[in-house]
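A further point concerns the way the authors explain their paired sequence and structure data. Since the whole study asks how a given chain folds, the encoding of that fold should be made plain. A single example would do more here than another paragraph of explanation. An entry of this sort, consisting of the sequence and the corresponding backbone structure tokens, reads as follows:

_____
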Amino acid sequence: MLATLLVGYPWLAPLAFIALLAAGPALGRWLAPRRSLTLGLLVATVALVCAIVFFPTGRTMAVECTLSWMLPLPTRPEPFANVVLFVPLGYLTALLTRRPVVAAIAAIGASACIEATQALLPALGRSCTTNDLFANALGAIIGAALGAIGLALHRGRAPEQARA
């Protein structure tokens, strides 16, 4: 389903990535003091990620995980979409916890759990690949870094607000 969409609209993932990079720091500055909203967005993001990665495809796969690596470039829609999928997860977790490194590690751990679940539940028709794990990890790290920038911008602004 997602792969079909990405093949039909190969510009979608790169456009989303550019939007996340451009808006991330300023949005993070705004979201940092709004923890309830950030939590709500994180819950919605986790639900969306779960819906995408656990939606049955109708195929039956063998219980296995493929070892592979393909550089997730914008010209490769599916691997690049895996990067984009995990940017918001790392980003919102970093903003919520105020710990970007922990957020990146948690998001990478979530990706490993997703890949293991896909391998252990062949009825989902999903493939487990290290390529997905690496691309998701890259997205989680980028997201956590954007969150760190947003937090730094927020901290830099906080003293001025106190004086006003």
User: Anything to note?
Assistant: Residues 130-163 form the longest helix (34 residues).
